[in-house]
Structure of ATP-dependent dethiobiotin synthetase BioD:
Amino acid sequence: MLKHMFVTGTDTAVGKTVVARALLQHLAASHFTTVGYKPIAERNLMTAEGLRNHDALVLQTSSSLERPYSDVNPLLLTEAAAGCFTGAAVDYEAMSRGLRHLSALADTVVVDGNCGWRAIMNDYRPYSEWVIRERLPVVLVIGIKLGCISHAKLTAEAILNDGLPLLGWIANRINPGLAHYAEVLGVLNHIMPAPKLGDLPYLPRAEQRDLAKFIDFSPLNIVAQHTA
């Protein structure tokens, strides 16, 4: 059983959270108990319940296991701190405690990262250091756009060079007007060092849809093992 998977992307705004929703829904349809996890979030909005992050709310509603918001997103950066790289300490231990807590409750925890693989935290350290420390298997989201082939190859190489398993990659059609979409997928199928696990079409309001059917875990055989 795959206890964790970390969702990273070739860049920011490539649809990591939408893909995380699809993963959660697909695993739940295969009778896994699932929960999404956003260890640290920025771009938060004040609501009647307090600060909330949009991506974390999507993960919360996409999980088969109902958990309070504080479980799904333990650390929220204020707008004043987000992206300012002040050198302030990041509570990585709180991120790890949250992961262990959810891991004890669910079959699989889908962890939604921030930006790309080498995203820099406020303390100037890459987010990937925490992922490496936790030994999380990685799913790479490739937003299909100009330049994505180079970004995908470089990101995959970095993940593997960091000693982590790259479970596979998922194409997300973020630009419906992009020409030669099939050709881009053909190149990625040929050069990527891990299998394709899904192909999400361009969908308005994708974060409100059932996306399970766009994921294919057959190359990993984990769903078959779980339902056997």
